[in-house]
Description:
- Keywords: Lyase.
- This is Aspartate ammonia-lyase.
- The protein is built from 17 helices and 8 strands.
- It has about 450 residues and is mainly alpha-helical.
- It folds into 3 domains: about 1-135, Fumarase C, Chain B, domain 1 (Orthogonal Bundle), CATH 1.10.275.10; about 140-390, Fumarase C, Chain A, domain 2, CATH 1.20.200.10; about 405-450, Ribonucleotide Reductase Protein R1, domain 1, CATH 1.10.40.
- Helix 2 (about 40-60) packs across helix 6 (about 140-175), helix 3 packs across helix 4 and helix 7 runs antiparallel to helix 10 (about 270-295).
- The longest helix is centred in the middle third of the chain and has 37 residues, at about 140-175.
- The radius of gyration is 30 Å and the shape is elongated.
Amino acid sequence: MYREEHDSVGKLNIPGEAYYGVNAQRAMDNFQITQMKLDPVLVESLIEIKKACALTNMELGELDPKVGEAILAVADEMLAGNLIGQMIVDPIQGGAGTSTNMNINEVIANRAIELLGGEKGDYDLVSPNDHVNKGQSTNDVYPSSGKLTILKLADMFLKTLEELAVSFEEKAQEFAHVKKMGRTQLSDAVPITLGAEFHAYYMVTKRNIKRLAAVRDEVRSLNMGGTAIGTGISAHEAFPVTVNKHLNELTGLNLEVAEDLVDGTQNIESFGVVADCLKTIGLSCSKIANDIRLLSSGPRTGFGEILIPARQNGSSIMPGKINPVIPEVVNQAAFLAAGNSVTVAMAVEGGQLELNAFEPVIFHKIIESFRVLDNSLMTFNTNCVKGIKANEERCRELLERSTYLTTALAAHIGYDEASTITKESLRDNKTVPQVAREHGVSEEILAAIME
């Protein structure tokens, strides 16, 4: 069974049971791009904005209280998880997000019509445009919903980073006594402790936490009430301040009204800053994952200085092979976030005059980066970092075999004698301590350079 709806393009049949309407149906027909659904946090943010707008319009005397209360009731239903499946448009769409905005408007309107005793599609009772979207435009609703989503996902990701930092700090303390050979450019350098290496991982993670916490301020400013291009046409003059008040009450996100609503509608470089921050976090974590892959390489022919948990078989042909699958997924998440940052940068640059039409791909890619980085670092922490063990015997073996111990030895016996010991160690395939003893170096000196 179908109902007939119309828009400026013409008439269209809509499934009778559907709460979405003609605008969402056309968007679904036009934009089978990712074949994915809108992120649930983005949908939640849209609902919160629609609820705050209804409260604002009622407070300002711009909306019939009977209609307003029905809109509020539907918003609460949706925030409880109902009707979410009626959000049918693809995340990537033409039209600067209009399809998404109209999808939520239509769902709220049609359910509100039911609550008021009408039948879906009877938009004289509750209109998606005139009532649900009153005082609004896609051009303030959509970017604001993206900003709310970023703030929520950032808070979620911060918890994951903080847990990872704790794990690195615990490993730094656990490995503080394990001395090993440090390396520069993959070549032996000078001694270091395994604990010092893990403390460095802790430090960069703490910096990433500070970066992400700071970048949230880039997206606290909303252009709600600016409507189409920031001039506020069709909205009550008190709409911006009033809707911001209600949004803060609903979300607790410490939101602000944009200082200049035209600027807040035209310019969206803040999203580029967010994407770059996520890229930086991903790249630094990928470097750590590379280190752990190298330090755990082996088990017989690699560095083998640490042991990471065996999570699954590593080969369909080599029996017993175990690969560093968890660090590898961190690498791939970082590659994705880096590529997404480029996409966002291009979309930020692509805006023209009073609007940027490419926010759909911006939000899709920023959300994807948040989700993939968060999930990859959770599994990295749980399934790898927490279970890392030091191979102390291997660390000491490689330390003793390294000729670069003679750098420390030279301070005690002189450069020329240390050079001679280096050459003999390489020639005879002996450890530096073995050759040093043959040259009469005392155990006290050897103990000093091995500490």
